[in-house]
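Sample pair:
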Amino acid sequence: MYKTLSAASLAVLLAGVAAPALAQSVPDWSGPYIGVYGGVVENNEDAGEGLVFDRDFDGQFDDTVVLSGSTTNAFTPGSCDGSATGQAASGGCDVDPTGVDGSIRAGYDMQFGPLVVGLVGELSAVDMEDSVTSFSSTPAAYVFTRQVEQMAALRARVGFAVGPALLYATGGAATAKVENSFRTTNTTNSFTETVNEDEADGYQLGGGVEWKLARNLSLTGEYLYSNLQPGDYVVRAGAGTAPATNPFILAPNTAGTDITRSNDGLELHALRIGMNVRF
């Protein structure tokens, strides 16, 4: 939703504030500032995402889990974005809820005529969930979830002052803390986390409008796109109480099967409002 809505919303916001500002004097944006921000975060779902498997433990998740005595894929029911509502594919998945975030930031701007350049650092508390489910023909559901909890960013900012408004673009590096989790309706096999990396690194791009309410106080509307690369999260399906004909423990590798999600990227779209105090 936010892939189109966010860009359109930002364009409307920019047009709305720029027109009446043209006739006004250009204020001074130079100096340090601190601010607080809040908004909504939408995950860019990967429509083709599912789970992938490593049957021979070679680190390549390119194997097919098949039913005993055949070449039939044990996961023929397929996958869906979000968290399963039951153990069968017919029940589908819940859509990941829209997330929220709250941020504090500090920055410094320098002004050269109408041109404003600066640097901003930001710390955010985030509540955003990204899940994917695959279904086996047992039937059983296997759900992988990433919960983004914190984010930090350091970005450059370039803007153009028009009356009391500063129209700007921003971009830089970002890192996030991610909590990984797994659940399944399969009660026969054992499931053990073998790799759980909780960092996600990448970059942010965006833009917005900052509007002077007073000499040292401003209101901001902003859109941010975050592209992050989460660390690995691998769950091993072991024998548990399953018979030797169980697809996860078929020969030649009876030790089990490693499972992870096929999409190793995380893309977020955020719309925010905030307020800055300048010194």
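Confidence is low (pLDDT under 50) at residues 1-24.
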